[in-house]
Sequence to fold (494 residues):
Amino acid sequence: MFYLGIDSGTQSTKSIVLDLESGEVIAQSSQAYDLIDGLPAGHLEQHPSDWIDAVESTIAGCLSQLGDRKSELRGIGVSGQQHGLVVLDQNDEVVRPAKLWCDTSTVDQCNQYEAQFGGVSGLIEKAGNAMLPGYTIPKLLWLKQNEPDNFVKTKTILLPHDYINFRLSGTKRMEYGDASGMGILNVRSREWEMDLVDFVDPRVRGMLPPLGSSNAIHGTLLPALAERWGVSSEVIVSSGGGDNMMGAIGTGNIVDGTITASFGTSGTLYGCAEKPIIDPNGEIAAFCDSTDRWLPLACTMNVTVVTEQVRSWFGWDLAELEKQVASVPAGADGVSFLPYLNGERTPNLPNGTGVLHGLGGSSASPAHLARAAMEGATLGLAYGLLRFDALGLTPSEIRLTGGGSQSAIWRQISADVFGVPVVGLATAEGASLGGAIQAAHADGQGSYEELCGRLVSLDDSTRCQPNAEAAELYRDKLDRQIKLTTVLKDADLL
Fold:
């Protein structure tokens, strides 16, 4: 029996086929795409048609690798970038490009929500989360206030993975995990908070598709697609979920106490909980996960985007970046890089910028900048780990996933910064593996504990233990990074 997992991200779509019996990934395919060029600062958008083209292309690519065995495909699970707003008209055609998770043009709309509902504390009391620019519902309010004609045309709103599910199955539906990142779901009760919905417009109630369990089957593959790909029309499409929710499944993060850190373009740190974990400061997102549990999560918007920027400055390949970072001692000789190149979500700095601090005559080298960039991005996630600790989530080990986790020097920096052992996964594609596992679970092939226990493997060769001396140095450097950020923010210089 084969299950196909799809990871539709900001930069590309990656699909894999999991052989449930052997536990092996037996086919994989990927396709890249771009953001829309030429938009104003803070506006980041994509054409949903690019996702669909990539999904269809990578599915076809995977199935071609299976040959005649593609008839063994039983299910599909979709992971999608969180928070994106897809708006459809009465004919289910896309009204305008999707505003993405990293779009920070909705600061004013978030402020309107805070003013109406008693500030951050009032929003947290009502729904469990603050209202952040990355979330979905401020984007819809932005649409009403800035593109009223497009708002009038809108009959349905979907998240990116919901839209892909719709195009695969013909069914519109939302599940608790990804929906909890919209800003209007009460994460305690898993119900829409209608006051927050109506604040945009009472008509929005009719735009929301049915909401239900993340463990339910979303639908079955459309007959036309099944015929085109030469597979059964009884292939199921599981509920899917946001990339972090599916990454949690794909890294075995489905029991209390497990923590995953994802080092992608952005960074996330998340755990699993049997009850809602509400941060009174609003810095840790109180999300639901995609197994009908909860997923406390810290998100930063600048991880590999920072190291990729440094690489581009000096024309290095990844091996050279690794070499240069390793040539500089822990702490980068006092050089700090505040990594807010895309603004920031934790801390909440939607208009933030990057800052270099502490350059000296002997430390103003490309290698020092590279080390400081890698440390700064990691320390951003470590701030989230401090909040986790304050909320009672203290890991004994952290699992690493995402492109940055492939770097040996970055894994050691992570262990030293986090102060606990870190270990990578046998596959870097945690979200697509999570999609495949969820599809198998929805198809009745076992519990998540059984499936993840058998199918998710750690790569013990990547395990790194924290160095006590470096860990102490990084605790001081994190304190300095927090102070620098606070001082610059309070002076309106960040």
